Amino acid sequence: MIHPPPTLPARRAPLREALADLHPGYFAVVMATGIISVAAELLQVPALAQPLYYVNIVLYAVLGALLLTRLTLFPRRVMHDLGDHLRGAGFFTVVAATCVLGQQVVLVAHRPQAGAWLWVAGAVLWGPLIYGFLTAAMVTRRKPTLDRGISGSWLLAVVATQALSLLGALVVRGTIPWRQPFFLLTLSLYLVGCLLYLIIITLIFYRLAFFAVDVHTLSPAFWINMGAVSISTAAGATLLADLSAWPMLLDLAPFVKGVTLAFWAVATWWIPLLLLLGAWRHLYRRFPIRYNMHYWAMVFPLGMYAAATARLSYTASLPFILPLARVFLYGAALAWVLAAAGLTHRLVSIGRGLPADADAGVP
Q: Quick one: pLDDT at residue 245?
């Protein structure tokens, strides 16, 4: 008589626990994959843009199914995550991923109507998430201190807002009704995203400068400091391409252009500082490089900077910055390969029932 392997029941527990603990920020995988594809399309590298488009459709479907399953099986954990100061901000990656996939659909697949439907999906998700998360963070009685309650992940609220604005600016060029009010909406979202960045980055910079940091708290999530301002640059540059089409908004063109250029300069300024902090963490403090999901929050800003620089180069007639976009595109592609290898190894370990480092404790 053949008996089943004794380890079979034990293999089910890690899979179930991994689903129960699935970090809400895992849609950053879709964000990173999608923005590299978009940047490649803008820089005319179809060999990179096309395959990543199809890969991203699969990733989005799989992660969407996992999120719905988790919401069905573990609704209390999902709601607890939404009210958590650190994990709750990760839900904004769902909005951003939806809109980044929408950019791919419009730019890579040339299907603006499908992109418009993804904008609608992103908008439906954005409202409840941004107001739900901020309300929960404000009214909860047990609040963490600033040094333990905020990280770069809070800027995902900015990324989601600007991603919605950027996709809106792309689909407004298609055959949709009420173009002028819709364009005003996308411009308003851009301005809201800019204001949110100024508010949140002030708190983050204060936290980094005046509270102690260690190798655990200084995670790759702080790269969103640069990613949020990069997507603001991309959204502004995309809006500028169509701003002159609306007479009542024409007077805002110089303002949007100045803000967009300023945000690109800030994004560029962040890069050396983030590299120095990473060198301090891994070279000076010898913190080992081990995979966790927050490395995708580093891949996305690299690709986003490439896309933003390319858009700004075309919109503002700055061809001499285009080589910089190409450098960051290939750097982001390399980072994507390394992060994908780490994710694959983690999934294999979980499938074998082996212990894997949890993402839950990483801010």
A: 67
For 96, other C-beta atoms within 10 Å of its C-beta total 32
Q: How far apart are CA 300 and CA 226, in angstroms?
A: 10
How many CB atoms lie under 10 A from the CB of residue 63?
19
Q: How confident is the model over 210-227, as pLDDT tens digits?
A: 998 888 888 888 899 999
109-133 burial: b if 16+ Cβ within 10 Å, else e = bebbeebbebbebbbebbeebbeeb
Amino acid at 285: R
Contact 239, 256 (CB under 8 A): yes
106-126: pLDDT as tens digits: 999 999 999 999 999 999 999
Q: Which of 56, 134, 68 is nearest to 96 (CA)?
A: 56
Q: Token match 């604005």: residue?
A: 165
Neighbour count for residue 213 (Cβ, 10 Å): 15
Residues 160 and 92: their CA atoms lie apart, in Å, by 6
Closest CA to 163 of 118, 218, 213: 118
Cα separation, 199 vs 58, in Å, equals 35
SS percent in the chain: helix, strand, coil, step 5: 80, 0, 20
